[in-house]
């Protein structure tokens, strides 16, 4: 971007909206007659009517961001016309079964907000060996009430180290170790049969350096990446760039070779950042999404979304370009495959998060879903401090997300936990932000005296003292430690913690994502150390293989696995019946007189109030009985007990209430 006039980057974004919309409308008028004819020819009468209706609805949402991104150097009208034709071709190639799905989704466009939604996240190989093998796991998913399956990256990665598949060498084929595109298509169809939606990653920020685009770029045949002949520009950017992997991949640039210069590598050195200021990159990535959508992928997880735009003097995250790219992509995909929704993977500060859901001063369609990493981090903070104050403070301060969106709520995922606790929130409860984050690392790595957790520090930065945490949910909840000591009381506490966290994510109003293995309390997996392609990355600690013996005990109410599994089934089944858990409306987090209790309330015009209570302390807590007046308990770790005008909450207990 150093060759562009940085001062002008926002010139088009600053124009009055009305003026930008008029330009888009004029462009659409010019385009429509020809597209009408082409659409009718390729799609037939009925489908073409729908396509044109979508075009009229979405065109401004495509044109505005394209113009902001590329308008200073490219002809926006020409570009928009090209993207529309790309979408039309994808619409024409869309299989009949997916067109039927489009119809259903157009009737019920907020399908992803239904309380029946429950997600499951798994590595294909670690869960089921291969994509075909997954068919034998569908009953398991159905038992857990799963309606959404996120398979970790499965497109063909580079050989050797590949960051768990996030270094893609070919977006058009599946990792041959896992199966084929045909297998994926078949799986998507089998999932649809059972009312489950397939979610797949789009690694949009970077490709593997072995990708054909990178090879062509090296040969001078495209300009998909950028390189810098010496350290001048990289140094200028790095002055304000935080390190994502400071421990094993410091810096954000890597040397291609003496002649090739330095290329942008936010993550590992074999992951080359694409140059998203080039419209050809946009079109190529769009092609990838459309292709996946036409195979039956319904949810596209936009990996590392915050990093798509780079501006000198910033941390190069959450820049305006990022939102323009996602919005333009959103509009283009809506034209071709309206059943598809986007999920933003933006693990950023709370104030930067809501824009990914389209929550800007003027709302714009962007991603329907985004990870609620605040809730995740705060829940772990609650368990360590045995107190809910910070969570109450931070959740109350969050801006609400657009009504059309849904949070993906989760306890654990395949990544480390980064302590995105804001200094402002910490200060508001009388804590020091950096000191609290240090405490959390000490606590979850097990070095804090009395800690029950068995995590490991990830990417410790000796310069800043920052670190993140790896480890399975069970290990972080104390189960590994308790089992090692064969301490039945400690096992009970660990299970209470694990179920408590899930009771919040399942009851918070969003799509709860269950991470494979957590339904059985799987332990840390140390075996990654023996594999040279994994040994450098301790996130593999919490990416275990499905343990068949543990799996076999899932229905045994006396076994640890059976106890967890039973609760998760109950949470999903109960949730499905509670209209107030429809995503989209904000949960009101309540300020109570007992600092140990996290309480949240949701309302739905058709079903009234839902109330959730969670006692984070390891001793009893209580709340005013008035809170539950007129409500009935629908689920809970313990039965409701009223004493002296208070609801008593046993240690680490949780309860769900609803209007009868
Ligand atoms: C994502 O995570 C993936 O979830 C990781 O597994 C990948 O390694 C990475 O992208 C590269 O593809 O920094 O520590 O705000 O938090 O994109 C993990 C988003 C990461 C980042 C996120 C990234």
Verbal overview:
This protein is of the alpha/beta class and 660 residues long. Among the domains are: 119-203 and 352-581, Glycosidases (TIM Barrel); 588-658, Immunoglobulin-like (Sandwich). It has 22 helices and 25 strands. The strands form 7 sheets. An 8-stranded parallel barrel has the order 1-2-5-11-12-13-14-17, surrounded by 4 helices. A 5-stranded antiparallel sheet has the order 18-19-20-25-22. Strands 7-9-8 form a 3-stranded antiparallel sheet. Strand 8 (253-257) and strand 9 form a beta hairpin. Helix 2 runs antiparallel to helix 3 (45-70) and helix 14 runs antiparallel to helix 15. The longest helix is centred in the first third of the chain and has 27 residues, at 17-43. The protein starts with 10 loop residues before the first helix and ends with a strand. The model has no long low-confidence stretch (mean pLDDT 96). 3-O-alpha-D-glucopyranosyl-D-fructose binds next to loops. 3-O-alpha-D-glucopyranosyl-D-fructose (OTU) binds at residues 163-164, 166, 203, 244, 267, 303-304, 306, 345-348, 414-416. It holds the Pfam family Alpha-amylase. This is Alpha-amylase family protein. Residues 121-550 form the Glycosyl hydrolase family 13 catalytic domain. It comes from Pseudonocardia ailaonensis. InterPro entries: Amylosucrase, GH, GH13_cat_dom, Glyco_hydro_b, O16G_dom_2.
